[in-house]
Write a structure and sequence with these properties.
By secondary structure, the protein is of the alpha+beta class. It has 10 helices and 9 strands. α2 crosses α4 and α3 packs across α4.
């Protein structure tokens, strides 16, 4: 468990702009306290030159402070402060970027392939969060909680949320206060798969397993959307006939 948490920490710190070496040194500063370059190198089993380079870069990236004295020592900026500062910069950068970039030229209906678990999850969350009126989802319990926050936000604003899920997913929805307004149908939903439709306009369907090569189809093509709507409606009718609402 500790190893898994450590690896997760290194990976997530990488998402915040730290190299694996820098992330390792940052974790050492958190766990060991103030360190100089020699102590950091000894704690991590790396060369002193790599340790000093990583420490200097952490300071530049706003992840560590320099402590006055001889020898020079370093302290980690609290993780909460590091995250808050990085998120503020990302939000400011996003606002500037959106103001500079042109609008995407609309297509006449596209079939797009989304590859990799992280990208599929991102697209699913954006699909749900961007729904203006309604969203229909078919997800097993193992994937449903991935979009719990987005679903709760939709339900809180009165938009329609319809979920086809397994028994575990139905129990999960019933315990989430933010999803009290969702309509739930108990169906046969395979773990690792996703079917979603938002506003009768966008469809996402495919695999959302653990592999980096998982793929989903994302489309606003009118014929596919129509077929998908009909399939979902028929599935709900069968569930209702079976008394599994």
């Amino acid at each position: 468990m500790e190893y898994t948490r450590h690896e997760d920490s290194l990976t997530i710190l990488g998402d915040f702009g730290l190299s694996r070496l820098e992330a390792g040194v940052y974790l050492a500063l958190l766990t060991e306290g103030e360190l100089n370059g020699y102590e950091a190198a000894k704690a991590l089993g790396i060369s002193r030159s790599n340790a000093y380079t990583a420490l200097a870069t952490l300071v530049e990236k706003g992840a560590a402070w320099v402590i006055d004295g001889s020898p020079t020592r370093y302290a980690a900026i609290p993780a909460k402060d590091l995250c808050a500062a990085r998120l503020r910069r990302l939000e400011d950068g996003a606002a500037r970027l959106l103001a500079c970039l042109p609008e995407r030229k609309p297509g006449s209906g596209s079939y797009l392939t989304v590859r990799g678990r992280d990208r599929v999850i991102d697209r699913l969350r954006l699909l749900v969060a961007g729904a203006r009126e309604r969203v229909y989802l078919a997800l097993a319990r193992s994937e449903l909680s991935l979009v719990g926050r987005e679903l709760a936000d939709l339900a809180a604003t009165g938009r329609k949320v319809v979920i086809i899920t397994d028994e575990g997913g139905a129990r999960w929805v019933s315990t989430e206060s933010g999803l009290s307004g969702a309509v739930v149908y108990r169906g046969v939903v395979a773990p690792g798969h996703v079917r979603a439709i938002a506003d009768s306009q966008y469809v996402l369907t495919g695999e959302i397993g653990a592999g980096s090569d998982e793929t989903c189809l994302y489309s606003d093509q009118a014929n596919l959307v129509s077929l998908f709507k009909e399939a979902i409606a028929n599935e709900i009718k069968l569930i209702e006939l079976g008394g599994r609402t």
